[in-house]
Design goal:
- The structure holds two protein chains of two kinds.
- Chain A is mainly α.
- Chain A is built from 17 helices and four strands.
- In chain A, helix 12 packs antiparallel against helix 13.
- The longest helix of chain A has 37 residues.
- By secondary structure, chain B is an all-alpha fold.
- The longest helix of chain B is centred in the C-terminal third of the chain and has 32 residues.
- Chain B has six helices and no strands.
- Helix content of chain B is 76%, strand content 0%.
- Chain B has a single domain, classed as Cytochrome c oxidase, subunit III, four-helix bundle (Four Helix Bundle (Hemerythrin (Met), subunit A)).
- Classes of the chains: A mainly alpha, B mainly alpha.
- Chains A and B meet through helix 1, helix 6, helix 7, helix 8 and helix 9 of A and helix 1, helix 2, helix 5 and helix 6 of B.
Amino acid sequence: MSSTDISIHKEVHHAHDEHDHHHDLNFFEKYIFSQDHKVIAKQFLFAGIFWGFVGGFLSILFRLQLGWPEATFSFLEPLLGKWVENGKLDPEFYLALVTMHGTIMVFFVLTAGLSGTFSNFLIPLQIGARDMASGFMNMLSFWIFFLSSIVMFASLFIETGPAGGGWTVYPPLSALPQAISGSGLGMTLWLVSMALFIVSQLLGGVNYITTVINLRTKGMSMTKLPLTIWAFFLTAILGLLSFPVLFSAALLLIFDRSFGTSFYLSDIFIAGEALSNTGGSPILFQHLFWFLGHPEVYIVILPTFGIVSEVIATNSRKPIFGYRAMIGSMLGISLLSFVVWAHHMFVTGMNPFLGSVFMFLTLIIAVPSAVKVFNWIATLWRGNIRFTSAMMFAVAFVSLFISGGLTGIILGNSSLDIQLHDTYFVIAHFHLVMGAAAFFGMFCGIYHWFPKMFGRMMDEKLGYVHFWLTFTAVYLVFMPMHYIGIAGFPRRYYSWTGFEAFNTFTDLNTFISLAAILGFTAQFIFLFNFIYSIFKGRRATENPWHSNTIEWTTPVNPGHGNWPGEIPTVYRWPYDYSKPGAAEDFIPQTVPFSQTQSSNLPQEKDFE
Amino acid sequence: MVSRSIEDSNNSAGAHPLKFSLWLIIISIIMMFAAFTSAYIVRREEGNWLEFDLPNMLLINTAVIVLSSITMQLAYNAAKTDSLSRLKVMLVATAVLGVVFLLGQWNAWGELVANNVYFGGVSSNPSGSFLYVLTGVHGFHLITGLIFLVLVLRSSFKFKVHSKNTLRIQLCTIYWHFLGGLWIYLYIFLKLNH
């Protein structure tokens, strides 16, 4: 499918050979259909922020329902139209809201928005390349994502409503339009949008991997790469291996929905009427889906591992603790992510022995994760910590990752999962460990690399306000959810006041909703700070954080090709902070050992 | 600029970036078929599985696609030795064989329908539907391969494919061999699971 892209791309190459440097680009070439990785990164960032607000707003809508189940929401009528009837939210629309919230947050914000922004921006800049291996494929990746975004966004406004079968779109619910209105046109658009999304991610991923492998500057060996690049590299590999499987699963679902096949459907009675489909297996979909779905959560969290490692080392003014252990643990997590998918399916009636195998493999992930956490804490330990906004988010990331990760050990047990499956305990777990944590990693990255992206600084005071409100709100939202989850409170329920067992949680649910509204409101402070700083922020210097990695050796506003002259050569690893004997507390990667004789370690004397 | 980034980099891996990208794309296609064929096995284990004979046409098609791989390789060798007329003949032969393969697959579908094995509908069974999906998705990729082939053919008529400029035809050859190999895997897989 993409072979043609390559050949088209070759044509572009030849066209470019003639004019080598600084030919004038018109507005469209420069800002819209740009092939420059920095512009594409910003496009992904803006799209990601837009989607973040959409996804967040949807969650506020269903939190209103959960927090005040008896209230009338007539004031929402101008916005939601017929989805609010007599002040009551339509139950099927509620399902559509949670479905779209999940889809948007997981795929459009934390996959495309996160990897798309930081892989595109940082890979060429940190490995010393002029651009991505294929600027054309990179541009195509964004614009296919844009198309996919339009389809998904449009599905919010159609008459039958957007997809409503949960973000995991399990058949038969998602396969039968007669089941709920959300399985009609909305589901078709969902599948079309996701198919485009997958193509976009594959094009991007192929580019990231090729660039990291092929275009590193002189001296930049794999063991001199910043951890960010290792993280993006492994994320791209995970995507390349797992997204095609989701594509297969979606394709079979499309055939079931529109072409009368029975891959996932068998012996179904709906409204007293028997369907003709025989021989299908809905569990098959779950296997295919979670074979992507589990690596997907690492696709979301791995880039932030890299970003946070980088920011913590820079702002602790200390070398990262256990550089190789960090790479090893990321490799371990990536490998394990492919053999644990069935822990999402403990209660599908699978063989208990198989369940115990998956449980064992799942619990092993705790080991590399703990290695990472200990290394971050050890890096912070007795560091010369500078609390920039980015650093606050990085430290909070570690906190959220621990809080959310610990409950993962509980959920990974196949027997405990019988009680906890599909309760708010699961919601609390994954929102802390991959939702909020990944968001914090993303904020951390934005605050940290904003000066390189836009040539200006973000406002630190507003950053602090944003941080503390968000941090407080996140814990206030998700900590109580553990409690109601252990009590058995089920997820995806529109109305729960009718159950004796859950009636007592009204106050807690109201509290969670209030905290969610607080957290969402706080994001507007970020939005203001972000937009204001692009135009009016304090002007940045070339290397405002005194960082070692080579993106900070570019001009304040790096042009096309990143470095005006030669691409710098790299001599050392990126974490020479506070090295004893050195004149300053950081030695950039581009400084040869011959210039730092006073601080060289015995084994480095050979390189002088 | 984009080209500069590739040309003047002291390529850290040895392979040309585009060739490397192609291999990555091939890996993603392999993953897709790995998903289909493992789904096939998992689903077959569960029973309620219609057993039927594979169309005989598929064996002939396998021979055709192997032949097309040979002509593709001959075209590549011709490009390396600057035998430009042989290059064009072999490329055309490959394209024709590719089209013959697709027509053959279409015939095989006809044979299936004649045997009451349907893709969808009331009397379909996943065992038949899987066969259509496997051949269909492979056929789709073969069409992309044909488009690539036609582009290479076009540039060979413009004298842009020769021993000093083999990248394009090399990529095309790799992709074509992959599509052939993928089909042989699918054929053996279907034979073993029938």
